[in-house]
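note to self: dont lose this again. the chain is below, predicted strucutre after it. 261 aa total, dont forget to put it in the shared folder this time
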Amino acid sequence: MIDWVAFSWSGASLLMVAVFFWIISLVRNDVSIVDSLWSLMFLLVALVYGAMDGNSGPREFLIPVLVAIWALRLSAYITWRNHGQPEDYRYQEIRANNEPGFRYKSFYIVFLLQAVLAWVISLPLAAAISGQSAIGLLDYAGCALIVIGVLFEAVGDMQLSRFRRDPGNDGKVLDKGLWRYTRHPNYFGNFTLWWGFYLVALSAGAWWTVISPLLMTFLLLKVSGVALLEKDISGRRPQYRQYVRRTNAFFPGIPRKETGA
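---
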């Protein structure tokens, strides 16, 4: 059972963090910093909830540690990747579509929206931390999925980063390593991770928190993930069309043989 007082405080904490980083974005004229903040929002929820929840359970230490491993790695990678770069083209497009006044609109269009999404998606974390049932098979299965998800994200990011650092790959498409089996191993990793957290919450009795992985899956497939990233990539990289024909978009699979141009 969720401690709703603690959950409310976690929401208030997310709001304060969103305001703080929005102010920083005004100074820098760059809202891309929200990408570095995204995973840390979940760590904040886990820490606040763990500190305030009065019903210590067997997952009280496990969940914040797992969230920290994922969140710190992802935030550090995105911060390193974006260092010295202009505002991400996705946010430049959002900015252009919401002028005049995007500087101020960006608070609710970008920062508040992500804080609310993180708050809702974090429900399995809150439920798992307060769960009183003994650790069981679902917990082990969930932890296995979480580890697989973190590895898919980390390895996929490492392979892409190494590929982009080679000037000889300019304009080419990465189709080696994990990218040979799925066009978005990092998104698949994130998908796997959140279904893992849900299994742990399910083991704690919170079956209804399925809204979290379902919402994350929808975002990854239809909103800010695959759909957004691939909207115009074929125009920027013609080789991507061939890559699409032989490689699964999301779930890993054996590459298909190309049957035509």
